[in-house]
Each structure stands twice: as structure tokens, then as C-alpha cells.
Amino acid sequence: MANRLPHASESTKQLREDLQHLTQTVEELVNATADDSRSNIKELRSRAETHLKNTRARLEARGERLYGEARETVTEQADVLDDYVHKNPWTSIGVGTGVGVLIGMLIGRR
User: Fold this and answer.
1) What whole-number distance in Å separates Cα of residue 63 and Cα of residue 110?
2) In the predicted model, is pLDDT for residue 1 greater than 50?
3) Which residue among 6, 28, 51, 94 has the highest number of C-beta atoms inside a 10 angstrom radius?
């Protein structure tokens, strides 16, 4: 899991830079619209569309990667929990009962 942190930091940094570039391009597009210079607007619009597509693609890729990592982590945790329950059934029953009582008390207070 420690290996994922530097990669996540790089992804976050790249995403931040992409969003800054996109914001700058959109601001330039808005400012150029005031001039109403058609050639300038077309160029800026093209740049904005390119940055938007690239940013969207990176966001989708990052979302899919994060989903896969989360799914893998949850699967690993479920396997560890399953193993623990099979090795310690009475402890697991006691913990489950305690959690159930606690939730029942919290619901009953309302």
C-alpha cells in the first residue's frame, strides 16, 4: 500500500496541472470573446476542447484505477475477515453481538 501513495501523489499533481491548464485556456477563451476576433476564438476553443478531452480521459482512467484498487483492497479485507471468523468463531459471535447491542441502543435513543 505504501507503493501506491507516491503514485497517487503524482496522479493528483498531474490532475491539478491539467485542471490549471484547462482553467487558463477557458479564461483566455472568455477574454478573447470580448475582442470578438473570430480566428483567436477558434484557436482558443480548439485548445480548450483538447484540454477538456485530455482531462476527462485522465479523470476516467484515474477513477477506474481507484475503483480497481478499492475493489482489490475490499476483497483482501473480506478474505482476512473470513479467515479470522473461521479461526475464532466464538470471538466473532461476541463481537457481532456487541455491535448489534450498541446499534440497538443508539437506535433506541431516538
Assistant:
1) 38
2) no
3) 51
